Amino acid sequence: MFAPAPFLLKNVSVSKVMTEVCLALLPAIVVYSWLVTPAILAQLVIATLAALLAEAAMLRVQGRPVGMFLTDGSAVVTAWLIALTFPPLAPWWLVATGTVFAIVVAKHLYGGLGQNPFNPAMVAFAACIVSFPALMSQWPTAGLQLGFGEQLQVILGLAPRVDALSGATPLDALKTALKLSEDSVSVVQLLANQEIYGNFAGRGWEWVAAAYLLGGLWLWQRKLITWHAPFAFLAGFSIISGALWLYNPAQFANPLFHLLSGGTMIGAFFIVTDPVSGCTTPRGKLIFGASAGLLAYIIRVFGGYPDGVAFAVLLLNLCAPVIDLLTQPAIFGMKDKS
Amino acid sequence: MISREEIRTIANNGIWKQNTSIVQILGLCPLLAVTTNAVNGIMLSLATIIVMALSNVAVASLRNFIPHEIRIPVFILIVAALVTVVDLLFNANLHELYLVLGIFIPLIVTNCIVLARVESFAAKNPPLQSTFDGVFMGIGMLWTLAVLGAMRELLGSGTLLGGIDMVFPSIQPIQLLPESYPGFLLALLPPGAFILLGCMIAWKNWMDARAAEKAKRKPPVPAEVFGCN
């Protein structure tokens, strides 16, 4: 995929970009391990190891230079995004399977770095939630009383997985509670429970989302991403959730809840901004982001899965080439497209 | 009559060179729906082999009497009659399996593999050659569906030959992976079939490319080696 003219040469390498994306994820990782569970650090290590192994193996099979591609950091970014979207107490093989699937199938079978039509991290999420729905929806409960060592044992399969350890995400909990109560409880009453939902969207999780926002804004300030896709994604999310919230505040949660829960923030700044599987023209990015936001909300609220960001992004990835084609800006110096 | 060389060519075409599933990519619908385990794939392929062998021999024998303009409806009628026979046979003798395979046995009649062989081979060749063609094309389908089914079954549920008790009641499925294996459900779903079929096609192309390279590198074989019979 090519960006529209004018072509200006900037001194950026893939590894530099990838390093900065990893840096932008750091605040969220710190908040995550501090407020939710430190087990995320173990998942990050597992995912990174799995990604590097899979990447090296695939490069070797194809006879491409292993060292050069392995150190470009793209596999690490994919691995970190996968670890951050998977349940932190999932068994080690779950995140490893997802990562290997992402690197082998979603990245290298399509031609490697820069050739993948789908976002590898979202492919991993979709493949795993379809294959292992139970494990993928077990998230640590709000008042998780378990040391880091014990959590490690659970991840490595040395200690039994107790169902009480894990519950639904705030997002999923809200959906289930609404479904079970059959309109007798309003969203406002449910959200008043600060044990689960915190101040805005989910105890702990809302601050993780805020940290993604911070990292994303830094990426924007560093000019690694443009404002179009994240803005449109959040706008799409806000518009549909705001409209439905105004229509019936008892049944639909407020826009802030939706912006700060689930994968909205990580999706806005780290997934829909993917330069390979997303759109490249400014107008295309706006269309891509807004449609992904709308679709993610619809799948999240009316669908059967806990969150809809992954499926929405994958569906929009399919449309990205057409959107790009139809939104070609005028050539520099010309009046219109011809 | 038929020479040994002819049989070899027909067999090579059916099993490898013109393989219905990984070269011609025909009959994808039953392939995706049925190969959730090896036994289903093998049994559907066996049904297809019977239909293909019989329809090829029937069409080849009648090929000089069928008007060219209406040949397709006539072929379909012949195939449909034979499929009905196989369908009733399965229903009577392998009833449980019949329920599992369901609509895909009657659908053999619309399977493009059958019609493709009838149209492109049996309508132009004598009955004996056509019978061999039907059988070997079917064997080509059989091994690909068996391998694909076995891979999907192993990845998806950790067993091998699941459902074999529907064919031979005395044999039990083999649990290859430990009971606690969670099962990679994606392999059992249609996307898994597409991904694994893609891998098989890639493997076949890789084998062919390697063979071609080897043949190119090898110096020409002296002529007298051939005449040793």
Description:
The complex is a heterodimer of chains A (338) and B (229). In chain A, helix 13 runs parallel beside helix 16 (282-302). Chain A is an all-alpha fold and 338 residues long. Chain A is globular, with a radius of gyration of 20 Å. Chain A folds into two domains: 12-167, no CATH class; 169-174 and 185-330, no CATH class. Chain A is 64% helix and 1% strand. Chain B has helices spanning 4-17, 28-34, 38-62, 71-93, 95-101, 112-122, 127-157, 185-188, 190-217; strands at 159-160, 174-175. In chain B, strands 1-2 form a two-stranded antiparallel ribbon. The longest helix of chain B has 31 residues, at 127-157. The radius of gyration of chain B is 20 Å and the shape is globular. Chain A binds chain B through residues 97, 105, 109, 127, 130-132, 135, and chain B through 182-187, 189, 195, 198.
Keywords for this entry:
heterodimer, A: 338 residues, mainly alpha, 2 domains, two-stranded antiparallel sheet, 17 helices, 2 strands, B: 229 residues, two-stranded antiparallel ribbon
